[in-house]
Amino acid sequence: MRQSHQLPLLGLLLFSLIPSQLCTICEVSKENYSSLNPLLSTMIHSKYTREIQAANVLLSLRLVGIQDQNIEQKLLKEVRNSEEKKDLTSGQLALVILALRACQNSDESVTNFHLVSQLEEKFQEEIKNMGVHDGNPLTNYYQLSLDLLTLCLFNGSYTITEVKNYFTPENKNFYFGGQFSVDTGAMAVLALTCVKRSIMNQQILTNGEDLQHINNYTESLVKKILSEKKRNGLIGNIYSTGEAMQALFVSPNYYNKNEWNCQQTLDTVLKEISQEAFHMPTAAAQILPALMGKTYLDVNNVSSCASSPGHLNISIDELIPVEPTISPIKISVNYTVQINETFFTNVTVPKGSVFLDVMKEAQKINQTAFRFTYAESSWGPYITSVQGLKENSNDRTYWQLLSGGEPVSQGVASYVVHNGENLEVRWSKY
Ligand code: B12
Ligand SMILES: *[C@@H]1O[C@H](CO)[C@@H](O)[C@H](O)[C@H]1NC(C)=O
Ligand SMILES: *[C@@H]1O[C@H](CO)[C@@H](O)[C@H](O)[C@H]1NC(C)=O
Ligand SMILES: *[C@@H]1O[C@H](CO)[C@@H](O)[C@H](O)[C@H]1NC(C)=O
Ligand SMILES: *[C@@H]1O[C@H](CO)[C@@H](O)[C@H](O)[C@H]1NC(C)=O
Ligand SMILES: *[C@@H]1O[C@H](CO)[C@@H](O)[C@H](O)[C@H]1NC(C)=O
Ligand SMILES: *[C@@H]1O[C@H](CO)[C@@H](O)[C@H](O)[C@H]1NC(C)=O
Ligand SMILES: *[C@@H]1O[C@H](CO)[C@@H](O)[C@H](O)[C@H]1NC(C)=O
Ligand SMILES: *[C@@H]1O[C@H](CO)[C@@H](O)[C@H](O)[C@H]1NC(C)=O
Ligand SMILES: *[C@@H]1O[C@H](CO)[C@@H](O)[C@H](O)[C@H]1NC(C)=O
After folding, report:
1. Same domain as 340, residue 205
2. Taking 50 as the threshold, does the pLDDT of residue 303 lie above it?
3. Nearest ligand atom owner, CA of 313
């Protein structure tokens, strides 16, 4: 009785889920490939293409079919270095696996089989941490989504119950300070889509209701992503748009064609590329696949990688990155550290300086009020403490960067400051 009721339902679901991808994927046309050169230049020439950043870059290049021997060797060495250090977070390990296995035949990748079981453990540690710290993972939901995606693509173990319990779109971890995180939601849509495909290929056994839950989550996340679309076509901000595009590419059945003008998004991104918005290797690596119609779901599809142009007609030696020029002109800014008390000072720096230069100058003026520490990450230096007060993911505390009272969209080593600006680092909760 029960079964005869569920089977038609499942059949209906399967029918409604047949992928019709091609209608929504828009990509840069061959004639316009040269507009991607700034991205490639950034990714290939960066002096800082180390460790996790290297994994981001290798994954991206492989997905779009660029397999230059020299570059591959250099990046692979960095990725393997990071793997050996053993102190990777769950999402970092997931990225390492994605990069090492991207577009490789499965026989070549048997060697790093142990990494998938390590990831299974790290995924469980994230879940365990949520149990004892008020639902807060060790890292964040962007990384849990990367974990699930990687386990799903490479036959690691996870349960549908975990997916159903932890990936509800209302979960607080999809939001920072009340604001929906497009990057996080997009990564979750990619992971959920992989899980859905596994269910449909019967790689994972389940019932029709599970599938419906996953459909509902995906639909709701896609809605939230689209509601962050700006008038110029960007989704969230410029740095989340690439991953949002990937999420929308794989879920065409969850929105109407008139809800998203892919070409407009693409045109705006190309304009931003020409204005050097993607001068960080990780930023370039995260936007490139979508611009060439690829998604992270293609990493285990060798034929998808092989059908890439592979021969973007570029000479790698010709791609010379632009160096910023330090000007002799001085500017001054008002720098504030905000905890419960307010500490501020007038700082003078050369024109063209970044937020980090201001913080270093302030520290020279008064070590007690303005001392700080940072950690290197794939996006550059991340501020970890000020006045000895340390950020903590169990409490969801961090040091927020602001200008004129508004959060900035870049880190301390990228954000260029202006004369008379009011800069602030604020002890905050997300
Ligand atoms: C989670 C997250 C956060 C969390 C990090 C803490 C936590 N619990 O994980 C919180 C909410 C605190 C946060 C803060 C900030 N973030 Co944030 N964050 C992310 C997100 C969604 C995922 C990062 C991640 O885990 N990556 C995967 C792992 C494997 O890589 P990883 O390098 O090991 O990850 C670490 C770093 O990314 C670091 N981190 C997180 N954000 C940022 C931002 C910068 C500039 C740096 C250097 C490092 C950093 O935290 C991660 C965990 O330790 C990304 C989205 C994205 N597309 O990557 C945005 C993202 C990286 N963040 C961004 C920004 C702008 C910030 C802030 C500068 C915002 C602000 N105005 O204060 C601050 C950082 C300030 C500081 N102290 O230096 C931008 C960076 C854009 C750019 N060009 O630099 C992104 C891309 C979001 C976006 N679309 O705008 N972030
Ligand atoms: C190439 O890009 C320009 C804008 O950057 C656009 O107007 C043009 O239509 C694109 N060409 C093709 C063939 O898509
Ligand atoms: C996936 O893993 C299971 C055991 O967990 C194994 O039986 C199966 O053969 C694996 N499938 C593939 C395609 O590797
Ligand atoms: C999915 O959503 C539909 C409509 O929004 C709802 O009727 C249905 O009960 C939901 N199913 C599950 C399993 O949550
Ligand atoms: C793999 O990629 C090819 C080429 O893009 C595509 O035709 C095929 O449907 C993909 N296979 C899967 C399982 O996604
Ligand atoms: C690649 O570019 C070179 C010049 O930069 C040109 O001579 C050659 O014809 C181009 N090849 C293709 C396939 O477009
Ligand atoms: C500098 O910042 C502090 C605190 O943020 C503020 O009280 C002060 O008025 C600012 N000074 C100027 C000149 O803007
Ligand atoms: C800020 O003040 C509140 C209320 O007085 C106090 O509970 C909290 O510990 C203070 N925070 C810091 C970082 O000093
Ligand atoms: C900050 O210092 C500079 C140089 O000493 C000075 O020209 C400027 O007027 C000062 N600004 C404020 C708001 O005090
Ligand atoms: C440094 O800042 C602290 C905290 O505001 C203050 O008590 C101290 O007097 C300052 N020292 C100097 C040399 O200005």
Report:
1. no
2. yes
3. 6
Q: What are phi and psi of 384, to 5 degrees?
A: -105, -30
Give me the domain span that covers residue 392. 330-429
- Of 288, 318, 348, the residue that ends a domain is 318
DSSP string, 219-286: HHHHHHHHTTB-TTS-BSSTTTHHHHHHHHHH-GGGS-GGG--HHHHHHHHHHHHHTTTT-SHHHHHH
Ligand 8 atom closest to 389 (CA) = 13
Q: Does the pLDDT value for residue 339 go beyond 80?
A: yes
The reply to whether 420 and 286 lie within a common domain is: no
What is the number of domains present in the chain? Answer: 2
Distances (CA, A) of 394 to 120, 132, 138, 162: 21, 9, 7, 20
On the CB side of 350, CA atoms within 13 Å amount to 8
Distance of CA 191 to the CA centre of its chain: 13
Ligand nearest to the CA of 308: 5
Site residues for ligand 1, CB cut-off 6 Å: 52, 89, 91-92, 95, 139-140, 142-143, 176, 181, 183-184, 236-237, 239-240, 280, 283, 286, 377-383, 393, 398-401, 407-412, 414, 430
Supply the pLDDT for residue 24: 67
Binding site membership of 159 for ligand 4 (Cβ less than 6 Å): no
Alpha-carbon dihedral sign for residues 420, 410, 126, 192: positive
CA–CA separation, 66 and 191 (whole Å): 25
* pLDDT (mean) for 170-181: 97
CA angle 153, 306, 120 (to 5 degrees): 15
CATH number at residue 388: 2.170.130.30
Contact 119, 127 (CB under 8 A): no
Which residue type is seen at 422?
Answer: N
Q: Specify whether 308 is located in the same domain as 336.
A: no
Same domain, residue pair 295 and 342 = no
Range with the lowest mean pLDDT among 170-179, 305-314, 379-388, 404-413?
305-314
Short-list 368, 386, 380, CA closest to 412: 380
DSSP state of 298: G
